[in-house]
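Q: How would the structure tokens look for this protein?
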Amino acid sequence: MASWIIQITVMVLSVFTSSSQGKRDKELYCSACKAIVDELNYSISQVDPKKTINVGGFRLNPDGTMKDKKVPLARSETHLSELLDRVCDSMSDYALHVDPDTQLKQFMRFAPRSSRATEDFPDFKNFQFDGPDASNALKFACESVVEELEDVILSLFSQDVEHVHQELCNRVSGYCKDSRHSNEEL
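A: Here is the predicted structure in token form.
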């Protein structure tokens, strides 16, 4: 009798747990994934390609030498981890953009990356600025994506995979799968 009650309880809890997770907003999570890729690519491009970092065990061999290896800083796991820790802070520079021709909705960057870049300003009439709630939702989605896919993101960027947004956002996570903007970059 007791095992029957336990089985029913487990079954009821599993139903409530799976239904309480809810659906993720495809546009929001797809945009967050693409924004992560865009921000990381930009940050990596700003690093001097000549800078290197020592990686290895930092242990002495029996003969007194140390085995270490120099790798480019931009694609090192250490640097990528630092970038990933703060990538979601830039989500306040994004707003919902509605394409006037296709009515496609996606979050896009509206703020220029530097104060000198005045030509980077987009046409604001197609953006929907819904206050801090929209950017908070995008930041939460960004943090969720980073938490869920941190190892994959580090692996893809350290290996310098081509078309990272397609690999990460379409194939690995499925956030942009079955969406109209699956092959577009931000």
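Residues 92 and 135 are 5 Å apart (CA to CA).

The first strand starts at residue 52 and ends at 60.

Upvote if useful.
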